[in-house]
């Protein structure tokens, strides 16, 4: 059976591309897989980061055709689909800018069985017409994959009759490293990944002013938001000695360097669905602190694999202090390992119902 998977993959970087690549590696064990990839994800003028790409030698042998802002590439993409003649199409959706293109391709391939993996049902930075286009998209695909209860409920509000399948985000496996990043303090919390407004780094920095001053914060990831406003906040709270910033995209072989230094991985998100960062934390047997603003709560066994707070500095600070004062009773590596056995890529593919 042949599957055509549509979405960003290497040489693009970021969470969706990494998920897509990991899933296709697993799919390829049982199916013939082709990938319809993007030529470019965003116009350079709209891209907030330093680069959309990483080492092109890691390309998944994809067909790089699509640009959401160039309708002629949609026509080329449709022609490729017709030539490929897949048994199934799997779409990866995450942002409103790609909705018109995905709606077009879905409508024009109505005779092909389709799955759409909704990394976000509604974008973190949504726009007024998004819900309408999502509703249209929901009418033109056979089954919709979400990875948390929050997303499931949103879909059911938009289209109560939609066929929705909830499968949890699998655990990533990354290369090991023996390099060590030195920290002045023995206690450290980690904020990892691209820095965007919705991820709540400002809330976490404010929380640092309310916790034990022996605890250090590592901020590791490229800024897709104004870096200066975070630096100003750090200076205002006199946290320069306790907050260390590593402002760059972290290659896979270096990820472990930073997780090894952390006692706790904090995801202080103002909005959330699921997270590859949480998956990485569990891969390294690290407990997490998440907020109750979205779907991440589904991934935490409270007081076993992590803690849950409100999305405000006082609540986050309270939970961080609680963790360090009583972490032997609030965290179990065995519970994390039990979750990891359940959240595998093999289980994810099995639950896609590709028959």
Mind explaining what this structure looks like?
The protein has twelve helices and 13 strands. The protein is of the alpha/beta class. It folds into two domains: 2-166, Rossmann fold (3-Layer(aba) Sandwich), CATH 3.40.50; 187-341, Glycogen Phosphorylase B (Rossmann fold), CATH 3.40.50.2000. Strands 3-2-1-4-5-6-7 form a seven-stranded parallel beta sheet, sandwiched between helices. It has a six-stranded parallel beta sheet with strand order 10-9-8-11-12-13, sandwiched between helices. Strand 4, helix 3 and strand 5 (113-118) form a beta-alpha-beta unit. It starts with a strand and ends in a 5-residue tail after the last helix. The model has no long low-confidence stretch (mean pLDDT 91).
Helix-strand blueprint:
Layout: E1 2-6, H1 15-27, E2 32-38, E3 63-66, H2 71-84, E4 88-93, H3 99-107, E5 113-118, H4 130-138, E6 143-146, H5 149-158, E7 164-166, E8 187-192, H6 201-208, E9 215-220, H7 227-236, E10 243-246, H8 255-259, E11 264-267, H9 276-283, E12 288-291, E13 306-309, H10 313-330, H11 333-342, H12 345-350
Parallel strand pairs: 1-2, 1-4, 2-3, 4-5, 5-6, 6-7, 8-9, 8-11, 9-10, 11-12, 12-13
């Amino acid at each position: 059976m042949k599957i055509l998977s549509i979405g960003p993959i290497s040489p693009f970087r970021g969470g969706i591309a990494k998920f897509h690549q990991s899933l296709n590696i697993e799919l390829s064990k049982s199916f013939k897989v082709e990938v319809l990839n993007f030529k470019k994800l965003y116009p350079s003028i709209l891209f907030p980061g330093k680069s959309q790409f990483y080492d092109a030698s890691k390309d998944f042998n994809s067909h790089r055709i699509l640009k959401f802002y160039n309708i002629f590439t949609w026509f080329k993409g449709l022609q490729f689909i017709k030539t490929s003649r897949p048994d199934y199409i799997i779409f990866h959706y995450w942002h409103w800018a790609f909705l018109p293109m995905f709606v077009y391709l879905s409508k024009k391939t109505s005779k092909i069985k389709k799955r759409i993996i909704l990394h976000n049902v509604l974008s973190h930075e949504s726009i007024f017409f998004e819900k309408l286009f999502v509703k249209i998209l929901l009418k033109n695909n056979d089954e919709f994959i979400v990875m948390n209860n929050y997303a499931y409920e949103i879909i059911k509000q938009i289209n109560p009759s939609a066929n929705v399948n909830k499968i949890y985000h699998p655990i990533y496996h990354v290369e090991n490293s023996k390099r060590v990043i030195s920290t002045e303090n023995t206690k450290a919390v980690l904020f990892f990944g691209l820095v965007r407004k919705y991820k709540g780094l400002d809330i976490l920095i404010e929380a640092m002013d309310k916790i034990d001053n022996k605890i250090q914060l590592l901020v590791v990831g490229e800024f897709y938001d104004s870096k200066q406003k975070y630096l100003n906040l750090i200076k205002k709270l006199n946290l320069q000695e306790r907050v260390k910033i590593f402002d760059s995209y972290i290659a896979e072989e270096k990820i472990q360097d930073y997780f090894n230094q952390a006692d706790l991985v904090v995801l202080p998100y103002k909005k959330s669905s699921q997270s590859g960062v949480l998956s990485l934390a569990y891969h390294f047997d690290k407990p997490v602190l998440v907020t109750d603003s979205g779907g991440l709560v589904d991934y935490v066994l409270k007081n076993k694999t992590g803690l849950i707070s409100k999305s405000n500095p006082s609540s986050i600070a309270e939970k961080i202090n609680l963790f360090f004062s009583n972490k032997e009773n609030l965290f179990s590596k065995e519970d994390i390992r039990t979750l990891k056995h359940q959240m595998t890529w093999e289980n994810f593919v099995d639950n896609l119902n590709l028959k």
